[in-house]
Write a structure and sequence with these properties.
Oligomer: single chain
Largest sheet: 5 strands, parallel
Structural class: alpha/beta
Number of strands: 10
Strand content: 15-25%
Number of helices: 8
Mean pLDDT: 97
C-alpha cells in the first residue's frame, strides 16, 4: 500500500488529522528531504523510519520500492511541502505501483497554487497550471503559445528568477495584463502583490523577494 500524503506548505497546523494518522501507521516514510520532513515529524512526535526519495534517486530505487510494496510494506510518500506529484517527485512511483497492481491512496491536502489562485482576485472558474517554466529549451515557444491562453495561468517560480520571469511575461503577455504574485503562503510574512505585470514587476525589482513563489496571470 502506498499513501501519497500532502504536507503543510508553511504552517505546520495545516496538516490533516488523517495525514498524521497515516504517517504514524506506515512502515516507512519516503521523503524528498529527510531533514525537512524530520522537522515536521518531530513537531508531531511521529517516530517512523525515513528514506530519501527525490528526483536524483527515484529511477535507481523504483524497482526496489515496488518490490517492498508488493511484499506487503506500507509506505507514505511526502515532499518538502504540498502534494507530491505537483511539481515534485511522485509520478514515476505511482505509475510503477499501478503497473504492479499495488494499491495507492492519495490524501487531499495543501497545494500552494490553490490558495494563490483563490486570493488573487483573478477569475478561477477556468485555469491552467504550468508549474515551473523550462529554463532554456522550449521556454520562448511556450510563452508565445501561452500569450493566447484564454484561461487564468498559474506558475511556480524561484525568488531569484522572479523579476526576470515577470519581465518576460511583460514582453509576451503585455505590461497591462493583471497578475498576482504570492509568496510565503500560510507563513508569518505571507505576501500577495496584485496589479498589472508592470506594477508587480516594478515592485519586486525594488526588493529582494524570498520564499516559495506562485504567479497567477489573467487570461487574454
Amino acid at each position: 500500500m502506498l499513501y501519497i500524503v500532502p504536507t503543510p506548505i508553511g504552517n505546520f497546523k495545516d496538516i490533516t488529522l488523517r495525514a498524521l494518522e497515516i504517517l504514524k501507521e506506515v512502515d516507512l516514510i519516503l521523503a524528498e528531504d529527510t531533514r525537512t520532513t524530520s522537522n515536521l515529524l518531530n513537531h508531531y512526535q511521529v517516530t517512523k523510519p525515513l528514506s530519501p526519495y527525490h528526483q536524483h534517486n527515484e529511477h535507481k530505487i523504483l524497482q526496489h520500492l515496488a518490490r517492498q510494496l508488493s511484499e506487503g510494506k506500507k509506505m507514505a510518500l511526502v515532499t518538502d511541502a504540498g502534494t507530491p506529484g505537483i511539481s515534485d517527485p511522485a509520478f514515476l512511483l505511482i505509475r510503477e505501483c499501478i503497473k504492479a497492481g499495488i494499491k495507492i491512496e492519495c490524501l487531499p491536502g495543501p497545494t500552494a497554487f490553490i490558495p494563490a489562485l483563490v486570493n488573487s482576485g483573478i477569475p478561477s472558474n477556468r485555469f491552467v497550471f504550468e508549474g515551473f517554466l523550462p529554463l532554456k529549451k522550449g521556454r520562448q515557444t511556450l510563452l508565445k503559445k501561452l500569450a493566447e491562453e484564454d484561461r487564468t495561468m498559474i506558475f511556480y517560480e524561484s525568488p531569484v528568477r522572479l523579476v526576470k520571469t515577470l519581465k518576460e511575461f511583460i514582453q509576451y503577455f503585455g505590461a497591462g495584463r493583471l497578475c498576482c504574485v504570492s509568496r510565503e503562503l500560510t507563513k508569518i510574512f505571507e505576501e500577495n502583490k496584485r496589479g498589472t505585470l508592470r506594477q508587480v514587476c516594478d515592485y519586486f525589482s525594488e526588493k529582494n523577494p524570498k520564499g516559495e513563489i506562485v504567479i497567477v496571470v489573467a487570461a487574454l
